[in-house]
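Protein entry
_____________
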Amino acid sequence: MAWNEPGGRRDKDPWGGRGNGSGPPDLDEAFRKLQAKIKGLFGDRGPVSGGGGGSGGGGGGSPALWIVALVALVAFVVFESIYVIEAAERAVVMRFGAYVTTLMPGLNFRWPPPIEWVEKINIDQIRSVGQKGAMYTQDENIVDVELNVQYRVKSVEDFAFKVVGPDPTLEQVMESSVRGVIGENKLDFIMTEGRSQVAADIRQAIQDLVDQYQAGLEVTSVNMQPAKPPEEVRSAFDDAIKAREDEQRYINEAKAYVSEVLPKAEGQAARLRADAEGYKSQVIAQSEGQTSRFTQVLAEYEKAPGVTRERLYLETVESVLSNSPKVLLDVEGGNNLIYLPLDKLFGHAPGSPETVAVPPRSGAEAEPLASDQAPAPRADGRSRERTR
């Protein structure tokens, strides 16, 4: 039965020796009892009632105990209030849960919790998150893409307060950006020469969304592994890649051949042009010389036609006979030919001219050889009329 029910035991009243009246409890008495219990914990028993002039267990608590407690409290406050921020860190200070300021590296002071809270954030640490999965391309193919995104904290205020869970947010942003960029490109471009371009586009797309969400992050790099086709069609893609490599190899060989042959052809063409120019100059010079010589001869011919004609004849005969080792002269009125061994006449051993017999002209008997006859008189070769 409860103490406050009718018939209950009144001695269980928590407020102690309260009378049977219905008045409110004596709060002063209750506070004094609580104070006495607290003092008892620290060794202060208080005055003993009804003791006359006798003294109790001591007039007050131990001073040393109070000093130790005070020193411990001060040490705790100092330990919780002084802290160091490293060079790569920034500290966000919150007072009663509200943002106050951002502290730079160095020794700083704060009020102990729960008055102020400090969150240290490393802004130089490079963090990473990965993404892997099968995605659709622009030409409706499936490709397996695996990449790794590296990022760091750019704004500590945005990182701490603007987004709840920046790392999970970045993972969702990365998945959305990767699927969007892969869906805008064809499979061949993603698997071959466009891999670096696709990685750059993914990085830019992630950064744009992160800035839009004000997550306080900066994407430093996107490392994209070589994209792979599905296992069912991988052999066909390998053949296509090999054919593309062969094509590029043939192109490189053709360019190398062109680089080797073209300079030679250009050099040969330049040499032929130079030879043609030289021949042209030579022919023109010869023609001009012959023209000048003919003009001079014409002037002399107009002055003395006979003499000039005779001189030209002699010069012509001289130029012709100088290249002939043998000369045959037909003598008028006879069947004998005079043989002039010019090579011997102008050589080291001069010899007399030889006579060569010829058959008769009109069926007559052959005459004796020239060796049995006297030599025929020589014709004077200084005039064309005499030789005729």
